[in-house]
Amino acid sequence: MSSSQEVEEIKVRINVDELLRDYLKLQPAGTGTYKAACPFHNEKTPSLMVSPQRGSWHCFGCGAGGDIFEFLMKIENLSFPEALKILADRAGVILTRQNPQAHDRKNRLYDLCELTARYWHKVLLESPRAESARSYLAGRGVSEEVIEDFNVGYAIDDWSNLFDFLIKRGFKAEEIFAAGFVVKKDRGNGYYDRFRNRVMFPIVDHNGRTCGFTGRTLNPEEPAKYVNTPQTDIYNKSAIVFGLYRAKSEIRKLDTVVVVEGQMDAITCHQFGFKNTVASSGTALTREQIQLLKRFTNNIYFALDADSAGQKASERGSELIKSVENDSRLVEGTDRYGKRSQFIDPALSLNLNLKIISIPNGKDPDECIKNNPDDWRQAISEALPIMEYFWRMFSASQDLNDPQIKKNVAKLLSEKIAQLDDPIEKNYWIKEIANRLAVGEEALRELVSRVVGSLKAPVRPQEAAVTAQPQKTINDPDLLKFRTILAIIWRFPELLSKLSQELLPDYLNEGLAQKLYKSLILFYTTHNELFALGARGREETNIFSAFTDWLKTQAVSDGAEQFLEQSYLLAQKDFASLDAREAKNEIETILKLLKSNYLSSMISRLNNELRQAEKIGDKIALEKISISLSELIRQKSEL
Ligand SMILES: [Zn+2]
To answer: Of 76, 102, 128, which closes a domain?
Structure first.
């Protein structure tokens, strides 16, 4: 297959709605189309339309649109070769060697990671030197199925085992270094393997590409229990959520994601059927990671290990209260409040439904589930809403009759309330906490607003980037009106007969609208049989498809195809439930506007000519122009 054949084949195999569903909540919008809230600009009412039949999408809010490639490139910020590789893998299309795009630098690194994952996995299953790793995993109760699913592997205790293997398979030393698998020797020019005697867990991004690894040591003397791939061109730690690729369909199905701390916890959760689980990998979730999760659900449950939250919360709470006693400043970074806040704070302002799971019977989910999976199930169902959790954490075993303690608890909670994005929720918690603490609601509100004032406005790079981009929205008012006319015509082709008599091409600006309209009229007069079929027995898309296919044989300017796609999607978005009478009225209104604009511009032109004729005293011209002018004025008054 040639490159362009490959691209076409991929488009045939991956439905546009199927891909977009990974990112957006699609709602049916009539005749097989869908609508969704656009991820590329801020909006509440969906204006992004998707047509599976046409393999296209378009946002009527910001003008973004295209096919599956354009969507993936835009939402993941990828180059075309990267998008091609991902979609080819997904479609099961093998890209040919001749395709240079398939072999750019980043794709080489992905290939390297993929090969390494397979190698380490094979070593774990088959090598006599992996005996200790196999017994470690068996000892932790990790099933063979999970080892297979997560592609778990083993890096043997050797300084150059992986390096030698990859060199033999044709990779260059610099590439192996760039992927993070080796470390440069202090002396000399050589490299040595970064991962030795470690059980290896591949880190897969949400598109299913292996981009890094976490290695757990089997040497009890080794100080670094876990070692990760360093930041590379393809592994950005703060943008990847461990386990998301395996969990995403279940997250969508249950409309909930459970975030645990460790990779082993996530793996155990999957093994016991809690498949909507991902791992934060022991660090705080970044805003980027939370936004990634938000694509799949608004319900995020955090399970924090006992040493960072859980049962010790009340004790920790007391420590915190003490620590603020001598500190009159309200906000001073999150460190003072310990790990807890770091895990949760980035999510507070993102309008999410956050809950906290307290882990019973054991210090982490892994232990809890292995004791009894039902305990874990129950813990999830009893998860506390985030503000309720903070209330318990800060107020537990405190003497709230002590005015100083009461004041400090109020301060701590006001900092949390201040970060909530939803004004209704904010208001609810101000009332609720004021009531529980028996303090005045206004006093607490004042405290919250002081915190809000001192918080810097959060930077949202994604949104900022969107507004900074030049907008592709159509500004030409005639073109917009013509797009609406077309949208209605696709639904009610029989209206074209009347339209062609009343809408003169001159009513439209010279340019795309006029050219397309002339083409449409030509198409109409040469394809009478299509229109003669009548509304019954005719597939709605027939006229549209027939026209766009026919247009390809004509010489029409660039942008025509895109413009027509938009008009088709607009028909589904705004006119899906339009009846024939409303359609006729709509067209008449637009027609009147176009005609009125046209007449106005003609009248002002003739007025100019009239003045010129008066100046030079050309009586014949004066007469002619006057007649035309009064005719135009009459026509305009009749509108
Ligand atoms: Zn948009």
So the answer is: 102
